[in-house]
Amino acid sequence: MHGANCEISISTYKLIPPRDSPLSPGTKLGRYEIHSQIGAGGMSEVYRARDEKLNRDVAIKVLPVAFSQDRDRLRRFEQEAQAAGALNHPNILAVYDVGTHDGSPCIVAELLEGEELRVQLNNGRFNSRKSVGYLEIWLIPIEGGHTPQTLVQGPFNAGGARFSPDGRWVAYVSDESGRNEVYVRPYPQAGTHVQISADGGSQPVWSRNGRELFFRHGDDLIAVNVSLAANFTAGKPLIVFSRFTPEDSSGPAYDLMADYDVSADGQRFVMPNYKVDASNIPNARVILSWFDEIKRRTTGAAAQ
Known about the structure:
By secondary structure, the protein is α+β, with helices and mostly antiparallel strands. The chain folds into 2 domains: 28-110, Phosphorylase Kinase, domain 1; 133-273, no CATH class. It is 14% helix and 32% strand. The protein has helices at 65-68, 71-85, 117-122, 128-132, 290-303, and strands at residues 28-29, 32-40, 45-51, 56-62, 95-101, 104-110, 137-139, 149-152, 158-163, 169-174, 181-186, 194-195, 202-206, 212-217, 220-227, 233-234, 238-242, 261-262, 269-270. The strands form 5 sheets. A 6-stranded antiparallel β-sheet has the order 1-2-3-4-6-5. The two termini are 28 Å apart. Residues 1-20 and 247-254 have low confidence and may be disordered.
């Protein structure tokens, strides 16, 4: 188990697009003309474009060439297109077309105007209960009929779901008790859920071996020993370390999705350093083999 004297190393990086330069306005992808870049992340780039044949604006998601050589990334990209294209619902993004551009797979989808849900939640302009009733957890299978399935539903908000490494349990956050707590329930069979946190909790993350479940409680990172046997059991929550609360942690959206991760051995954590002004960082680095890099640096430091 983790001790209170564990050493934590925190680094801050600004995310940069994986392409050397984004597609320029005016670039033609078949009948689509690029107007501007909407955003970019670790997986793909998204552009606003014009469908010249149907005379409408669309969103085009492009997987960079470097990533298209990665079979796993390419498979996930293709599964995303297939899953979204098989669904038809007013609240699900519509996929219009798929194709390639200079060796890069791309998805052409409906263009949605507006700002991110996280921004509206944290700025207090979105009341989930008045707007959509309650936040629920749904599952959409990648293979098969792509029929949505309800995981957690009730007269309360729920989110931040994470499958256990063996895929038989789901950890999630719910305010059914009147405040956010971390729960675990079986999957796919129905069963009683188990409350993990005792005095509030959010952002659950499983260890890679499934023996621990981490979550946040205020300024503390908590770890709980768990057993993924036929009858799920959980030990007493213990503090791993404190002192990493972001300045915007008061927003409802903050409590759901985890902003940290844990190494395979469960001894190291990576998370944002909210005390650093990212706008003043002159350079950005993208490390593809993150844990190999950590191992190299820690081995080198020990040798010195």
